[in-house]
Backbone:
């Protein structure tokens, strides 16, 4: 086996190991980064929904107060406004889902399912938990969720939810008086939940990983080519030339050209030593003649 072949086998083995280790580490990092990016985006969406809720209570509801005496307008409900706003956002990000799950909602659509109810209870039992991030199994695969508590901090929210007597009659006519009452100031009554399939961050990680590995492979391939060119220029060609001259001298050709001694590396030192040996051999041959 030639020196070039041995060199390339070792080089390919080392680079293959490097690719494997780099791929394993980078994929883990990319998955974590993609997950964090998705959670961060979900947090921004939730902050937007919170802003819509506050804007609805502070500015929209007072403007429609007179109309509410004749007809209940869902546009005055913070949860309705936040959900509608989020649905508009979903037109560009359809993979995200949003729900304001409430333990005792006026609108039955906001009633929590089992896993959402567990999150709400967690917030009610642990006031210091301002956010919960988790993964749950669904029929279509794992889903990542970000949840934050819905706490009554604005007195305006109690206009419709404190007692049946205080609630607008138009609201009672639409939803009845069985649900959505008895809320208290500073009470955690539900949770905002943004969900996204885990396939989303995984797909982001996979695409980035593919690009990274292709670039890494191209770099490694370029290094192998460059190192082979250097090997051929610096080592293989001088050694091959040395071998040819040694073969000529061994066959009696004493007029063979000397090797170039330019440079200060090991090959140059070897060339100088070879030339001295050759000259000594030529002198010895002439003396014998």
Residues:
């Amino acid at each position: 086996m030639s020196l070039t072949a041995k060199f390339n086998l070792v080089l390919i083995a080392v680079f293959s190991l490097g690719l494997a280790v780099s791929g394993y580490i980078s994929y883990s990092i990319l998955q974590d980064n993609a997950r964090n990016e998705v959670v961060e985006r979900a947090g921004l969406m939730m902050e937007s929904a919170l802003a819509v809720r506050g804007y609805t209570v502070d500015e929209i509801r007072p403007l429609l107060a007179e109309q509410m005496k004749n007809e209940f307008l869902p546009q005055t409900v913070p949860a309705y406004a936040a959900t509608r706003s989020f649905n508009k956002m979903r037109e560009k990000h359809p993979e995200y889902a949003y729900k304001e799950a409430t333990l005792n909602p006026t609108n039955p659509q906001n009633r929590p399912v089992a896993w959402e109810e567990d999150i709400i209870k967690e917030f009610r039992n642990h006031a210091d938990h301002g956010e919960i991030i988790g993964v749950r199994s669904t029929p279509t695969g794992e889903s990542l969720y970000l949840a934050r508590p819905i706490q009554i901090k604005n007195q305006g929210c109690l206009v419709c939810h404190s007692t049946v007597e205080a609630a607008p009659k138009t609201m009672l006519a639409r939803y009845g008086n069985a649900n959505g009452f008895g809320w208290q100031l500073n009470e955690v009554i539900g949770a905002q939940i943004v969900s996204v399939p885990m396939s989303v961050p995984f797909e982001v990680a996979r695409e980035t990983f593919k690009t990274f590995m292709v670039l890494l492979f191209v770099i490694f391939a370029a290094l192998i080519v460059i190192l082979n060119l250097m090997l051929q220029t610096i080592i293989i060609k001088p050694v091959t030339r040395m071998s040819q001259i040694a073969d000529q001298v061994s066959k009696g050709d004493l007029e063979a050209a000397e090797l170039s001694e330019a440079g200060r590396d090991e090959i140059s030192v070897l060339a100088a030593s070879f030339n001295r040996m050759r000259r000594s051999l030529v002198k010895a041959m002439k003396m014998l003649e």
Helices lie at 3-63, 65-68, 78-89, 114-125, 158-161, 169-175, 199-250, 266-288.
